[in-house]
């Protein structure tokens, strides 16, 4: 894996990415780009969602392995610490992580022998950031690594700071987006769905907040396309999802779904697996959440045609094999991204290209 869960976040940040094996080779795109995304030529509508690419070294590694549409890990307007180690544990899920299963505690392990097709993990980082003095320059460097038919997207989130009112929080999304825009990414992804920071919560289910944030980010970044990253909406929340799409439509170019599915993670004794306050629940990703990503892609496609809109749909969740990529395309995704899959198989894009 190129992020090594047995090492701390800082070790991974400073010394990674770590090669998966001696056979880890770059992939050279030899055909001219045949697809388009956000009006830019791309080699394949496939890439890596926010999270696995901690800095420009990771971005370079992923571009070099044929992942063409990358997202630089979500950044903040302030320095923000990482949750205590460990940050990734493997979780036991039999088949799909349905919402019924996610309502029960899942058992986490620090090692696994599962094949990639059955691999699910929980990640609990709290969206750490080294602050804009570091990441704006590093994002510029990362943008410069894109080869022909490749693009980089910057992901941002607001940070609640002492004394902040909701308005200040929404403005912080916009300020962070403006900082990211200054580095020249192909798009700004607004992360409305990270479950790991207790005070911030998951904002994508609050209509007014989402629309306010999108409006302000749109004003702040001028002409750069905006993508919103959202979590899973249950079928009962379909009207809310439709309202949010309608309300944000004037400001956004794409919707990326899904983030992780939240569950309580315990050890074999039934105790909280991850150390520290507010860490009983964390986001599960990997093979067991593919059903939810596919479901959201299909429902976003229905909403897009019902409202006669033309935003792009970015399908994320449980893409571990080339077959999963094709399943997302068949469901209606304009672009497919993986996070866990790429971390454990950096040749996934090359395998799709060769398939
Ligand atoms: C290690 C790790 C870190 C992540 N960090 C972020 C993040 O900073 N911002 C974000 O929007 N999503 C983040 N995610 C969520 C992924 O972008 C993705 O939505 C989720 O993992 C589902 O895709 P997957 O099943 O392919 O992993 C992270 C996921 C992982 C595995």
Give the number of DSSP strands: 15
List the ligand species: flavin mononucleotide
Classified in CATH, the superfamily is Aldolase class I
The CATH C-level name is: Alpha Beta
How many helices? The count is 11
How can the largest sheet be summarized?
8 strands, parallel, barrel
**Any low-confidence stretches, pLDDT <50, length ≥5?**
none
The count of domains is 1
The CATH architecture designation is Alpha-Beta Barrel
Give the class from helix and strand content and strand pairing. Answer: alpha/beta
Shape: globular
Q: Going across the biggest sheet, name each strand in turn.
A: 3-4-8-9-10-11-14-15
Helix percent reads 25-40%
| Residues in β-strands, percent | 15-25%
Radius of gyration: 19 Å
Q: Mean pLDDT across all residues, rounded?
A: 95
And the CATH topology?
Answer: TIM Barrel
Distance between the termini: 22 Å
Describe the model.
The protein has 355 residues and is α/β, with parallel strands linked by helices. It has a single domain (36-354), classed as TIM Barrel, CATH 3.20.20. It is 32% helix and 19% strand. The chain is built from eleven helices and 15 strands. Strands 3-4-8-9-10-11-14-15 form an eight-stranded parallel β-barrel, surrounded by six helices. A five-stranded mixed beta barrel has the order 5-6-12-13-7. A two-stranded antiparallel sheet has the order 1-2. Strand 8 (151-156), helix 5 and strand 9 form a beta-alpha-beta unit. The longest helix has 17 residues, at 290-306. The chain is globular. The chain starts with 8 loop residues before the first helix and ends with a helix. The mean pLDDT is 95. The site of flavin mononucleotide (FMN) has 26 residues, from strand 4, strand 13 and helix 10.
């Amino acid at each position: 894996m190129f992020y090594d869960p047995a090492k701390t976040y800082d070790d991974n940040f400073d010394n990674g990415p770590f090669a998966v094996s001696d056979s880890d080779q770059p992939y050279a795109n030899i055909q001219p780009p045949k697809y388009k995304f956000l009006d830019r030529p791309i080699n394949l509508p496939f890439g890596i969602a926010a999270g696995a690419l901690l800095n420009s070294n990771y971005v370079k590694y992923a571009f070099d392995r044929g992942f063409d549409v990358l997202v630089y890990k979500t950044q903040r307007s302030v320095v923000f610490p990482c949750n205590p180690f460990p940050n990734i544990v493997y979780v036991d899920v039999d088949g799909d992580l349905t919402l019924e299963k996610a309502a029960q505690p899942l058992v986490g392990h620090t090692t696994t022998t599962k094949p990639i097709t059955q691999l699910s993990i929980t990640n609990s980082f709290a969206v750490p950031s080294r602050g804009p003095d570091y990441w704006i320059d590093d994002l510029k460097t990362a943008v410069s690594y894109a080869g022909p038919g490749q693009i980089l997207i910057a992901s941002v989130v607001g940070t609640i700071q002492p004394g902040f009112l909701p308005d200040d929080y929404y403005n912080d999304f916009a300020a962070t987006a403006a900082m990211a825009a200054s580095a020249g990414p192909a798009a700004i992804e607004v992360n409305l769905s990270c479950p790991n920071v207790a005070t911030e919560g998951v904002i994508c289910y609050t209509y007014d907040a989402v629309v306010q944030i999108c409006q302000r980010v749109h004003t702040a970044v001028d002409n750069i396309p905006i993508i919103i990253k959202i979590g899973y909406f249950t079928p009962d929340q379909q009207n809310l999802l439709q309202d949010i799409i309608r309300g944000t439509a004037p400001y956004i170019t794409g919707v990326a779904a899904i983030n992780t599915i939240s569950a309580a993670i315990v050890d074999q004794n039934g105790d909280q697996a991850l150390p520290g306050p507010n860490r009983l629940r964390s986001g599960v990703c990997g093979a067991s959440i593919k059903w939810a990503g596919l479901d959201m892609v299909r429902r976003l496609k229905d909403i897009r045609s019902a409202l006669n809109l033309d935003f792009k749909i970015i399908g994320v969740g449980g893409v571990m094999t080339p077959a999963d990529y094709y399943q997302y395309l068949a469901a209606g995704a304009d672009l497919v991204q993986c996070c866990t899959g790429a971390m454990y198989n950096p040749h996934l894009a090359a395998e799709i290209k060769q398939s």
